[in-house]
Specification:
It contains twelve helices and eight strands. The two termini are 23 Å apart. The protein has an eight-stranded parallel β-barrel, surrounded by five helices. α8 links the parallel β6 and β7. α2 runs parallel beside α12, α6 runs parallel beside α7 and α11 packs parallel to α12. Helix content is 49%, strand content 15%. The mean pLDDT is 94. The protein is of the alpha/beta class and 285 residues long. The site of flavin-adenine dinucleotide (FAD) has 23 residues, from β3, α6 and α7.
């Protein structure tokens, strides 16, 4: 998969999350079937905070890989996991032919004590990557932040740390969601100056309801430009119009990226295949 992306210099990938309850797998498989029809280059599957419910991530990734025949990328976090637990997840992934992992540090779970946090096996994602490269044959991806990771002292230090992911063996990066392409272009320029040469997929999340701004976006720390704020102010109370305007905004954002030479797009689908279809058909018409 990663080799293909490097060679094609153009990719479309999706992110999905596993069902929150055990009884909801059939519905999740329907979502995946519909997403699979759009022929993405890969589909990545999120991992519960602190490593909770990793079995669900593996089951969904396995379905993508083995039933849909599309490359699956399983997310994996290290903040709440010991080396042995990560290796156990790797063994399960291997059994299911899943060979791509987005290796993340993860955020500290609320119930983690200071002692647990201080004694974790890996302080940073790049530390886990070095370990996984030594111990497994996984193909690794890493996360990057066009507007800087919220804990980083400066963009400069965040980029230095990002370079460590490439040096540790990451073959591709996936960006945090952003709504203002200018941040992304500036980020790409700075990353290139740091010697980051691996492909970077631009993370796009369509805003289809006003309440997303208060939840997901706040957590991600992404700036909301005036054009998007105006859409929310105008259509926020009208779900159908808000959905339409939010999708149109994402399409315009992707078209602008493509016009500026950014051809690796990672769509945060939020498990909404109809929305993913509308966007995919508009941008690849
Ligand atoms: P790191 O790369 O470790 O970076 C975290 C901070 O530490 C940064 O400020 C960085 O500058 C700094 N740092 C890194 N290396 C060093 C170093 N060597 N020395 C000093 N400082 C350093 N979370 C989940 O729980 N599950 C998911 O499925 C999930 N999927 C995600 C997908 C994407 C595409 C993205 C962008 C994020 C995702 N997250 C997920 C959120 C992610 O776990 C958080 O953003 C987390 O706070 C940072 O993870 P990281 O891997 O980027 O950490």
């Amino acid at each position: 998969m990663i080799q293909n992306i490097i060679e094609k210099k153009r990719s479309l990938s999706f992110e999905v999350f596993p069902p929150k309850k055990d009884g909801e797998f059939e519905k999740a498989f329907e979502v995946l079937n519909a997403l699979g029809e759009l022929c993405p280059d890969f589909i990545s599957v999120t991992y519960g905070a602190g490593g909770s419910r990793s079995g669900q991530t593996i089951e969904i990734a396995s379905y993508i890989q083995n039933s849909l025949g599309i490359d699956a990328m399983a997310h994996m976090t290290c903040v709440g996991s010991r080396k042995e637990q990560l290796l156990a997840v790797y063994e399960e992934l291997k059994k299911h032919n899943v060979s791509h992992v987005l290796a993340l540090r993860g955020d500290r779970p609320r119930d983690m004590t200071d002692e647990q946090f201080a004694s974790r096996d890996f302080a940073h994602a790049s530390d886990m990557m070095i370990f996984l490269k030594e111990q497994t044959d996984l193909k690794l991806a890493g996360a990057c932040y066009p507007e800087k990771h919220f804990e980083a002292f400066s963009m400069e230090s965040d980029l230095n740390n990002l370079k460590k992911k490439q040096d540790a063996g990451a073959e591709i990066l996936i960006s945090q969601l952003f709504f203002d392409n200018d941040f992304y272009y500036a980020f790409l320029e700075k990353a290139a100056k740091k010697g980051i040469t691996i492909p970077i997929c631009a993370g796009i999340m369509p805003i289809t309801s006003a309440k997303q701004i208060g939840t997901t976006i706040t957590l991600a720390g992404s700036s909301v430009p005036k054009a998007l704020a105006d859409i929310i102010a105008s259509y926020g109370d009208n779900p159908e119009e808000m959905r339409r305007a939010g999708i149109d905004y994402a399409i315009r954002q992707i078209r602008d990226l493509q016009e500026n030479g950014v051809n690796d797009i990672h769509l945060y689908t939020m498990n909404k295949p109809k929305m993913a279809k509308e966007i995919t058909e508009s941008i690849y018409r």
